[in-house]
Amino acid sequence: MSAFYRARDGGIDLFVRLTPKSGTDRVDAIQESADGRSHLAVRVRAAPEKGAANTALERVIAECLKIPRSTVTVVAGHTARLKTVRIEADPAAISTKLDTFAAAED
């Protein structure tokens, strides 16, 4: 399984598969697509209209990682299910939180 995030200068790029119009807002699990790429599966109640689902995704990620909402931004895949979310924070600290989350999956 490939990594579902990548460290970069000043933060992390997190790879996400978003499911909008769900019954709840939640982070589901780390999943692997048919091409071998890994991503974090996230569900949000918001509909994919006028950026509402992307905004909800940013909020859910921030809450999950206990970081300020302003540090989380969708940077790629704005109209697609597969997205790249940039987290502007200490890469080591965020990596530790993400690795702990991934370990809970095992």
TrEMBL record:
Gene Ontology cellular component terms for the protein in this record: cytoplasm
UniProt-listed InterPro entries: DUF167, YggU-like_sf
One Pfam family it belongs to: DUF167
Record family assignment: Belongs to the UPF0235 family.
PANTHER family assigned: UPF0235 PROTEIN C15ORF40
HAMAP family: UPF0235
Designated name of the protein: UPF0235 protein KEU06_04660
Source species: Pseudaminobacter soli
